[in-house]
Structure formats: structure tokens, C-alpha cells
């Protein structure tokens, strides 16, 4: 049983310490490497096997090499370790392992990889969360360094377009200094105001507790979530939708089994497709709303983080499971994103 009072004390302590975080220049976002004819290339794979699905998704978008060309410094892998609850609450260990395998196979050394995150206020310390959800075991197996953000330094940024963050916000220094970032979000609803938590909301794990408190107490929470993404580039997103939450979340909820892997370099496109899938499965607070109307997606699109119209996305769908209903799902997504 987790000691929630201890978790909250860590949360408070890190928030206070962050007042000393130095203000740094916000780095420009890197160019999406997965683009064809001006459209964001996104893989959507229906599969019965997670590892095969991820392998096919990467193959379909052009592999992992486009994001590692000219690499200087390290690649940060950002899983979803908000809580210690198993997938789909947290990134599945097999997903992390497959991405590490692909990086190593591409010539990246283990010393160029860091896994980093910070858990939610009642699941700290992150070290314990990663131990319980299996992420730490993968890191130890490959001898990959792990950054528990609450134990390390923070920097303050003020992205120009982050108008709902007038005073800026603090992000983990390991995120700020990363040469490349790979995001490994889950597919799930979020009952505490976020509505859904995919790749855009995976960013909440990179901000300081003081700023998390501001975000969760704001009526503009969903716009704030979108604007966090101005502080760093997600060079590659691999979203594991083998299972999802269609109500509840982020730690526990009612499950469905889309059996899909979504991958690409456009956070907005990935999330728009993911939200359409949640709508297909009648997810709470999503089923009766147009995908384009969700504040997270709408704001993210407004500030140039990506695209969410199907006319601006090259959706490369592959059915590895020979599932007759997959075409129906693809057609549903395309119609929702018109």
C-alpha cells in the first residue's frame, strides 16, 4: 500500500524547491520527420501481438532512423508512469522494451538513452512507481539510465504561444536538454477534467508539481495541457492501444480492446486518431462530441503543434489481425476527422 501522505509531502517539497529554477530560452520545436507530400504520416496497425504491431508501425512510417540522424547528446524516452497501475494505466513494459531494442539495433548505444518521468501526486516517488509497473525492470535489464524528475533539476520556460501560462512553467532539465524525445502514451479516458490522456497529456509528467497544481485547479486545464507541449518536441510517438479505458482513468477504469498501435511524429494527429477510436468504443464524455471540438486538440492545433484533419494526415492502416471490423474502424476515424 502506498503512503499517500509521504507522496504528497514529496510533491510539496519539489514544488517549493522549483521556485529557484532558472529561466531559460524556450527551444524551437524540431521538424516532424514523418511527413509525405506535406501530410503527417501516421501508422494505424490492428494486431494481436504488441511487439509485431510496433515493429510494423515503425516500418510503415519509415523506421526509427529519421529521428536519430545527426544525433548529438541523448534520447529521452517518456513513458506514462503517472501511477503504478498496470497497462493501460501505465506504458506496457513490452512497449518500452521494443523501442529500446529498435534504438540499439539502429546503432544507438545504451549510454545515449534515458528513461524519464514523474508520477502523480499520490504515486510518488516515481522510483517506486516504476518498480511496481515494470518499467524499472526493463531499464535494469538493458542497463539504461533512469531519470526520476522529482530527484533532479528544473528549468523555467515561457513559450511564446503559451498564453494560458502567463508566468511560464517549469520542466525537468533532462527533458529540456534531450536531443530527441520518444513519447510512449496510453489510450485512455481521464475522469478528473482532462477527458482523455494520450500523447499531449503525457506531457504533464514533465512539469513541476507547482505547475501541476496550477493546471489541475484551472478551468482552462485542457488548454494548459496542450500548451505544455510547446516546451519540447516529441520526435516519435508510439501509442499502445492494445487495450484502453473508456471510462474512469487515468489509473483505473472500464476497459475495451481496440488492439491497435498508433505511431508518427505528430502529437495532434496521433491524439485525434486516438480520440476517434475512443469515440468508436463509446467512451465517456467523448462518444457524444465531435473530435475537433475537444479543447486539448483544438488548442494544440491552433498553436501549431500538429494536424487533425484527415485531409492533412496520411493514415497508413495495416490489418495484421485479419479482422473484418478493422475497415469499419478506419472508415469511422476518417469520417470523424473530416
Could you give the topology of this structure?
Layout (H helix, E strand, L loop, with lengths): L3 H14 L17 E2 L2 E8 L3 H12 L3 H4 L6 E5 L13 H13 L7 E5 L8 H8 L1 H8 L2 E4 L5 E4 L11 E4 H5 L2 E5 L1 E5 L4 E3 L11 H8 L4 H8 L7 E13 L4 E4 L3 E5 L2 H14 L14 H8 L10 E7 L6 H11 L2
Parallel strand pairs: 2-14, 3-4, 3-8, 4-5, 8-11, 9-11
Antiparallel strand pairs: 1-2, 2-13, 6-7, 9-10, 11-12, 11-13
Helix pairs in contact: 2-4, 4-6, 9-11, 10-12
Walk me through the structure.
By secondary structure, this protein is of the alpha/beta class. It contains twelve helices and 14 strands. The protein has helices at residues 4-17, 50-61, 65-68, 93-105, 126-133, 135-142, 173-177, 209-216, 221-228, 267-280, 295-302, 326-336; strands at residues 35-36, 39-46, 75-79, 113-117, 145-148, 154-157, 169-172, 180-184, 186-190, 195-197, 236-248, 253-256, 260-264, 313-319. The strands form two sheets. Strands 1, 2, 3, 4, 5, 8, 9, 10, 11, 12, 13 and 14 form a twelve-stranded mixed beta sheet that branches.
Strand count: 14
- How big a fraction of the residues is strand? 15-25%
**How much helical structure, as a percent, in the residues?**
25-40%
Elements, N to C (H/E): HEEHHEHEHHEEEHEEEHHEEEHHEH
Radius of gyration: 18 Å
Low-confidence segments: none
* Helix/strand/pairing category: alpha/beta
Separation, N- and C-terminal Cα atoms: 47 Å
Apparent shape: globular
Question: What oligomeric arrangement do these chains adopt?
Answer: single chain
Mean pLDDT: 97
